[in-house]
Amino acid sequence: MSWYALDDPNDPQLDDLAARFQLHPTHIEDCRSNNERLKAEGTDQYLFLILKYIRAVQEGDLIFANFFLFVGRDFLVTVRDTPDVSCEILQRAQRSGPDQPPSKLLYLILDSIVDSYFVSIDHSDDRIDDLQDSVLDNPSPAILQNLFDQKRKLIELRRVLVNLRDACMSLQRESGSIINPELYPFFRDVYDHSLRLLDMVETLRDLLNNTFDVYLSSVANRTNQVMKVLTILSTVALPALVISGIYGMNLKGLPFLESDHGTEIVVGAMVASTGMVLWMLKRFGWL
Amino acid sequence: MSWYALDDPNDPQLDDLAARFQLHPTHIEDCRSNNERLKAEGTDQYLFLILKYIRAVQEGDLIFANFFLFVGRDFLVTVRDTPDVSCEILQRAQRSGPDQPPSKLLYLILDSIVDSYFVSIDHSDDRIDDLQDSVLDNPSPAILQNLFDQKRKLIELRRVLVNLRDACMSLQRESGSIINPELYPFFRDVYDHSLRLLDMVETLRDLLNNTFDVYLSSVANRTNQVMKVLTILSTVALPALVISGIYGMNLKGLPFLESDHGTEIVVGAMVASTGMVLWMLKRFGWL
Amino acid sequence: MSWYALDDPNDPQLDDLAARFQLHPTHIEDCRSNNERLKAEGTDQYLFLILKYIRAVQEGDLIFANFFLFVGRDFLVTVRDTPDVSCEILQRAQRSGPDQPPSKLLYLILDSIVDSYFVSIDHSDDRIDDLQDSVLDNPSPAILQNLFDQKRKLIELRRVLVNLRDACMSLQRESGSIINPELYPFFRDVYDHSLRLLDMVETLRDLLNNTFDVYLSSVANRTNQVMKVLTILSTVALPALVISGIYGMNLKGLPFLESDHGTEIVVGAMVASTGMVLWMLKRFGWL
Amino acid sequence: MSWYALDDPNDPQLDDLAARFQLHPTHIEDCRSNNERLKAEGTDQYLFLILKYIRAVQEGDLIFANFFLFVGRDFLVTVRDTPDVSCEILQRAQRSGPDQPPSKLLYLILDSIVDSYFVSIDHSDDRIDDLQDSVLDNPSPAILQNLFDQKRKLIELRRVLVNLRDACMSLQRESGSIINPELYPFFRDVYDHSLRLLDMVETLRDLLNNTFDVYLSSVANRTNQVMKVLTILSTVALPALVISGIYGMNLKGLPFLESDHGTEIVVGAMVASTGMVLWMLKRFGWL
Amino acid sequence: MSWYALDDPNDPQLDDLAARFQLHPTHIEDCRSNNERLKAEGTDQYLFLILKYIRAVQEGDLIFANFFLFVGRDFLVTVRDTPDVSCEILQRAQRSGPDQPPSKLLYLILDSIVDSYFVSIDHSDDRIDDLQDSVLDNPSPAILQNLFDQKRKLIELRRVLVNLRDACMSLQRESGSIINPELYPFFRDVYDHSLRLLDMVETLRDLLNNTFDVYLSSVANRTNQVMKVLTILSTVALPALVISGIYGMNLKGLPFLESDHGTEIVVGAMVASTGMVLWMLKRFGWL
Fold first, then answer.
1. Cβ-proximal residues to C270 (8 Å cutoff; 6+ apart), any chain
2. For testing the chain A interface, which of B137, B218, B229, B235 should be mutated: the one with the most A CBs within 10 Å?
3. In this structure, are residues B29 and B21 in contact, taking their beta carbons and an 8 Å threshold?
4. Are the Cβ atoms of B155 and A207 closer than 8 angstroms?
5. CA-to-CA distance for E190 and E187, rounded, in angstroms?
6. Cα distance from E287 to chain D (closest Cα, Å)?
7. Sequence-ordered list of residues with C-beta below 8 angstroms from that of A207, at least 6 positions apart, any chain
8. CB distance A159–E199 less than 8 Å?
9. Which of A39, C212, E65, E240 fits a disulfide with E55 by CB distance 3.0 to 4.6 angstroms?
10. How many other β-carbons are positioned within 10 Å of the β-carbon of residue C257?
């Protein structure tokens, strides 16, 4: 078995390999265009896979890297499009020795990729738990920003994982002679893991939507509270203002103007009218 | 028939059993990784199931425990991953006696698990009923918190039940020789129950969303009410304040300043203008 | 043909019938547990159906009653679980005479049940029409409560009807010898009616969501209106208050203090400044 | 070929035709009940179709009329349930002459009905365009009412069109001898048109939801603007009111009371404090 | 091979070609009606395709143009319905030379159309990124307008792309002799690209909905902030106004009226009561 590991899709060696192993021109083109969808498809001679793994997380955004595989009966061509990073995805396959059949190496690579997604989703899960705790206490715009960043990450992740699941399913159905039959249960296991990844992403999306609803209703609640405070303050102040305004007028004939207890009576009237308005608000269930 | 009941997936006895009954390495690995999806799948020799049951409810969160089964023609291996709790799930199977076929025991265990979910959902149902009653009366943040906790529980529950239903369906389709044909109607019954569980969870989710909408509109309504109170208070007070302000000015030539009935006239004007503003608001349908 | 009509699932006669006609234990258990899903399933010897009909509407909630049927080639067993009400569902079947084949009676019972749902949905339709009319005029919390009660009813109804449709479909596919082939078009008709029921429930749900959106936007609109009134009132009053406050100060040197036309000038300034603020608000499109 | 065009489903002639052409009783019953779903189904002898067309648009509501067809090898029975209107749906079929095969007439009638839906949808499209333009400029309740009327119309239309599409699809699959094989491309064309109708309705629904979101956010925006105006007004007025209130007190020892420039100083302090509050609001990004 | 490129569907040459190549009348009618859906369908003799490409973007709206193809074994008829623009869609096919089989030309045209959609979606992607950045900083109505324009564009684009995907899928399934078998992988590639286009549109729609939610919650947040400012301002001012109102009354017996330190005491009381209200608001967590 021979394994050709290329670090650059534009490497002319890929053309040589394409000629030698009769790789289809559309597949070579797929490697070189950078706008491709994760997929797995087969010809009689080989399987072609486009895989994606999370290369880095930059300011909350997931940076995906493409990974192309041509898996034949006795050859394996792997093409990476981001040669600058050390690739943990390949380590398990590299360690397992060169005498393995190509489909065993394919399984090891797929399984490493799926495992890397679990790490990423667990990380998201922790972040969302933190967000949920802080949203009810303090619904600030910074949390909102964070919440939407997580949401965008999940939108992207879901799209990639849906395609990964489809690719795993089409590998399972692959009745060709390329995948060793005794590896079927392993590929089925990878497929189950891809389903579980999607389950987890869906659950996280539901939880995030949940959190967003909590945020919105917390803000609505707070606006409501603030409005009530304003109303109570106005209620307390207005009767006093009206009565003191009346007694501030330069008019004759206001009652108690000349009385020695005028102040006590009028201030008492202020307190009484304020109390009455508060009592009315309470009675009609407004406060 | 021999039944091996292990309390720990890492028990070396599991390796011995795997060797004796030719259990597939991916299944043994599934038992030992704790990130697996509920499922049922079969080989020619045995059925492998990953089941989940609700071990405990901690502060509103559901704690699931995994339960692994290997069901062969004449052997049954059950593996629990949380040995510290007494397991009611197994009691019915244990009581039915050791001379039952493994698939009969499988049915009894599955049925016990499904029944335990019914208990949990009925409990949720009661909580949601209580929430619905209190939301319209008093939409407080504490109720909101409660509401979202229920929602999260249902999200988790739904995910597990979808997988349970799929597992029950794949058991039904199992044409192998492991499940006794005369048990088919019983497995179909379990499948029907899993469908009903999902129905109930979906209905509860709809009701919770309903309740959340009630909450949001109650808060909006209350804000609206508070705003109206504030507006009415301002309307009542402002004309009086403006008129008393004018008569408080140290200017000459204000009408009725020297009149003996000045107070009556001016206060009457205050009341009249307040009444007029209220009448205008009413007429334009604003209050 | 013999028809056994039981009024209580716990009637011991059911056990006798089960023994005589070889009814499956899971089906007998289904009759006696009260947590079952509407369904239709067949064995070689008979069809077993769980049906639900609306027994009563209590304070807006639908109360369903279960109805179990065992339809054989020459026998019919019907079991009701709420014997206290007279059952209109059975009347058409009872009137059609005892010499009908069991599957004909099954059709008559099914058709009566489907018709009873049409009555219930038409009733809901009228209620929703009323709600829609009143929501725009007067979005009160009482209407909201009513709206959500209707919504809950539709959620329940939909769940039952989905299962009814599935049961009708599985009856259609029933290739066994129990249903008389010349009755096929009749069962197809019942199936079409169940589809139409679901259509109607979906339409009503869409209309209710529509009505809820109208409610929410009406409340938002009213809040907006109330805010504007408050702002206009404040705008009208504030310049007057500020100016009268200034002229109420016990300071020397205020212009026009000694003038005979001071009052006219200052009140004119109040009116002018109020007008100017209103004009500014209008110009910037705020009011 | 003979064409029987009845104007009333209760016409006794329908019973005669049913006897002569062996029309199934459930189909005759379908014609006479007015609660049926649009559908197409076939027996060996004839095709039975229930079609719906838009009879009129009354105050924004679509009034549908039913149209029943029995299409045999050498006969056509058409039944209308609203005889009072002239039926443009039939005109093309009537003009094509009596010597056409029944399935050709069926095609012409179906095509006329589909075309009439295109007219109705184009009309809705124009209305929605108008709504979208006016919503951002002036989000009034009248527009809201209009918007929800359109939404209700689309809900109804969609339900009918889904059934129309299903009927067209079942006609295409009709392998019987009733539809002339050379008409297949024409029926496929009608099916394509029904798909396009559904596409258009879905797009219009998306656009309407879009418009509703614009409405809601416009109202929220305006409330926000009004609140800001109120806050600015209060900010401008409050410092002046507080200071003038203080200098209106009948107390001794207020500074500048006896000064000749007291007025200038105190009014200057009012302006300065108002400016300071505005500057603070600006600095904290609140306005 | 002969290629007939018509610039106008009403060109009488189309009728000649229809007669010569036995093109079906419904297809010719499809070319001439302008209300058709993108599709691909085949007869024994030729494939008929209706394609759409983006002719122009006018004020944010996508203007689609139709493009009709008849692909036979040895002929190709292309019909454009907007002859006024130079058509880049055809350039690759024109350059590839006249000796290519018609299905190769079909592939080249399809691929050009798919590529043109990628350009359009990338453009939308950039716009949505810009929107997302500006929404949190400054949620203005202009951004809202922009956001909804993008949404409408995606709704239209999605509808067209769904049909494009279906057409590509039906081309793949085309087992006829018109498409050269060795071109199958190329058509599969085009199909994959159409799937990826839909993926991208779905992701963009999710992101736009996300952005809209950010907008709504930013506005709610700002309203909340403005309300708080208003409440703080009122809180600061009201105690001072009430106390100064009381000391402005023309009553006898107010304490400190005759004191030399009256002003200091009363103003001190104002400051103290304002501070107390603020402290209370803070303590109850309202501010």
1. B246, C239, C240, C243, C244
2. B229
3. no
4. yes
5. 5
6. 15
7. A128, A132, B152, B155
8. yes
9. E65
10. 16
CA distances to D67, E17, E105, E237 from E101, rounded to whole Å, are: 49, 19, 7, 86
CA angle C158, C162, C167 (to 5 degrees): 145
Q: Is C78 helix (H, G, I), strand (E, B) or coil?
A: strand
Nearest CA distance, C250 vs chain D (angstrom) = 6
Q: How far apart are CA E134 and CA A12, in angstroms?
A: 44
Inter-helix orientation angle B102-137/B141-173, to 10°: 160
> How do residues B51-99 score in pLDDT, each as one tens digit?
999 888 777 778 888 999 999 998 999 999 877 666 778 888 888 877 8
> pLDDT value at position D28?
93
With beta carbons under 8 A apart, name residues in chain D contacting C137: none
Predicted TM-score (pTM) of this structure: 0.83
CA nearest neighbour of E117 among D204, A40, A41, A35: A35
Non-local (6+) Cβ contacts of B238 within 8 A are B277, C233, C234, C236, C237
For testing contact with chain B, the best of A129, A215, A242, A276 (most B CBs within 10 A): A242
Kindly list the partner chains of chain A, i.e. chains with 3 or more CB atom pairs below 8 Å: B, E
Per-residue pLDDT tens over the stretch A46-65 = 999 999 998 887 777 788 88
Helices D102-137 and D184-247 cross at an angle (nearest 10°) of 10
Residue linked to tokens 């019972």: C109
Per cent of chain D over pLDDT 90 is 33
How far CA E89 is from CA of C242, E66, E94, E107, in Å, comes to: 71, 12, 10, 11
How far away is chain C from the Cα of D119, in angstroms, using its nearest Cα? Answer: 23
Which chain B residues touch A250 with a CB distance below 8 Å? Answer: 247-250, 254, 257
Among C260, C277, C280, C268, smallest CA distance to C244 is for C268
Which tokens hold the place of C254? Answer: 């205020």
The nearest CA of chain E is from the CA of A149 a distance in Å of 10
pLDDT of residue D283: 83
Q: State which residue of chain D sits closest to C212, comparing Cα positions.
A: D148
CB–CB contact E186 A264 (8 Å):
no
pLDDT of E100 > 90? The answer is no
Cα–Cα distance measured from residue A70 to residue E46, given in angstroms and rounded to the nearest whole number: 36
Residue B126 tokens, joined: 């009661």
Q: Retrieve residue D202's tokens.
A: 């879905």
Residue pLDDT, tens place only, B137-161: 778 878 888 888 899 899 989 999 9
Phi, psi of E48 (to 5 degrees): -115, 130
On the CB side of A266, how many CA atoms lie within 13 Å of its CA?
A: 29
Q: Tens of pLDDT along D106-116?
A: 999 999 999 98
SS3 for chain B is: CEEEEECCCCCCHHHHHHHHHCCCHHHHHHHHCCCCCCEEEECCCEEEEEEEEEEEEECCEEEEEEEEEEEECCEEEEEECCCCCCCHHHHHHHHCCCCCCHHHHHHHHHHHHHHHHHHHHHHHHHHHHHHHHHHHHCCCHHHHHHHHHHHHHHHHHHHHHHHHHHHHHHHHHCCCCCCCHHHHHHHHHHHHHHHHHHHHHHHHHHHHHHHHHHHHHHHHHHHHHHHHHHHHHHHHHHHHHHHHHHHCCCCCCCCCCCCCCHHHHHHHHHHHHHHHHHHHHHHCCCC
Q: Which amino acid is at A83?
A: P
Can you tell me the distance from the alpha carbon of E61 to that of E24, in angstroms, rounded to the nearest whole number? 34
Query: Chain D residues with CB inside 8 Å of C224's CB?
Result: 219, 222-223, 226
Q: List the strands of the sheet with B46-58, edge to edge.
A: B2-6, B75-80, B61-72, B46-58, B39-42
Chain E partners of D277 at a C-beta cutoff of 8 Å? 233
Contact E251 A261 (CB under 8 A): no
